[in-house]
Structures are given as C-alpha cells and as structure tokens.
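2024-03-11 09:14:02 DEBUG pipeline.ingest accepted 1 chain
2024-03-11 09:14:02 DEBUG pipeline.ingest length=302
2024-03-11 09:14:03 DEBUG pipeline.predict start
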Amino acid sequence: MNARYLTADVFTDRKFGGNQLAVFPDARQIKPDLMPRIAQEFNYSETTFVLPPDDPSHTAKVRIFTPGGELQFAGHPTVGTAHVLASIGVVKLTGDETRIVLEEGVGPVAVTIRGRGGRPEFAQLTAAKLPEAGPPPPSSEELAAMLSLSPDDLAGDDMIPQAMSCGTPFLFVPVRDRATVARARVKLDLWESALADYITKEIFVFAMDAEHPDHDVRARMFAPGIGVAEDPATGSACVALAGYLAERDARIQGTLRWIVEQGFEMGRPSILEIEADKKNGAVTAARVGGRTVLVCDGTMEL
C-alpha cells in the first residue's frame, strides 16, 4: 500500500524556516500501530494522520505523534494540517475566511483559515480548553541550574515560573532578555531530577525582548522527554503563553495580541501570532496562528 504524505514548514512564510510537519491527509488504511513508527521515521517534531471525524458536523479527526509518542493536542500540527488540507482541496475555501473543526484528543479544535484567490495564507486555532495554571514549580534556583543559568537570569517580579496548559502543559520560565534565552542549555541530569514528579517536563523559556521591533516575545522550547531536544515553533505552548501574559496584563477587556519569535537559535526562525480575549478581567479565549509553506508531496510504501 502507498500512502500519500505532504510535508510543510509551519509558522513561517518561507521554506526551510518554521517547524517541520508531515501530514498524511487520508490515513484510513494506515494501521494505528504503524503511526508512531512512521513518526519516528520522519523524526520531525510531529506527524499527523487525518481520519474521518466521529461527528459528521466536524471536518476531520487528527491524530498527532511526536517521535516519542502521541499527543492529545499540539498547535503547529493543527495549523499546518489545516493549511495542507486546504491546499490540496480536501477543505474547500469559502471566501476570505473558512472555519473548520478538527477533532483531537483534547476535543474539537476550531480553526479559521484565511485565503486569497482560493489559496490558504494563514491559519489560526482557538484552544479547545482555556489556559489553566498548574501546580507550583520547582524553585527558581533549581530551574536556573537546570537551564545552565543563574537565579539572577530569571525575570522576577510577577513574571514568575509557572505551568500553564490549554490541553498540553508547559513550564514557562521567563528570563530577563533574549541573550539569556540564547544561553539556556538543558542539563539533562538536573532536568530529570527537578521535574521527575512534576505535571510537565516540557520547558518554555522566554523573554519580553524580541529581536524585531514589531514583535514582543523571544522564546525557546525544550522537550527531551518526548524526543524533541528543541522545538522550532510550539503552538500549544504559545496559546497557553497568551493566557499567562493576559493574566498579568492590566487590561481587563478586549483582545490582547503578541507576536512570538521562536526557533531563531536553531536556524529555523518562526513567527507565531497569539491572542487572548478578556472580559471583566478573565481570559475567555486564546488563539494562535501563522503562515505555512508546503515543501514536499510524496508517497510512503507501507
């Protein structure tokens, strides 16, 4: 059996940037036990398998695998899969904006695809779950040592380390500037001991110090526990980051927006646009979006 796949670079407007993704747009004939092995073969941060939806009112079901296992939700695979499906005509664009729903382990995920001339240009997901804070993390001293930093390198004030999740939890560690972001290195022995019993082992290091004057955040994400030493662009983390930042923003009403730079230190620059809606001081929605570029269209013999 030959199974069609496409690869794409997500959260970028040019090839060889962003985060790589492999998409199997019709995975009905692929045995479930092969899916993790195929993800290991590609060795991208994620590979997706598109199946018919359980609810016929939805667009598709999407299973997401890293080289280390299956995820219930992830941002760049959702955004990239939506773009791929629209590019090959599985999703018909209905105008400037087309809204679809993808079923993932976390639940139905709404995606808006913006197009021009019948081609997709930008896709944005709305998190199925509102950003939720996790339990207190290890001490700043432990986290700094784990990241090859000193406690003084952390941001301080109300920008404290905190776990947040919109379905996939991440430990957010704010630091003082983008030079500190660049210096961060995970010490695996300290990482294993510090986070052995914690809610997540995925670490998102960021600073409110972007390189581009129109951007807001510089970030890196480390996930050695799932086979991703560093991720070029992490939509599920950035949509939770929108909740983290919104909770600390003095504005109590309206839509708050930030632009995140990620993957620059890896040579795969990625741009993620994040939003949070607030009403009476509470976060009521979180979104992440960006552009995608198709790279390959091929078949795999199974």
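2024-03-11 09:14:41 DEBUG pipeline.report The longest helix spans residues 75-87.
2024-03-11 09:14:41 DEBUG pipeline.predict end
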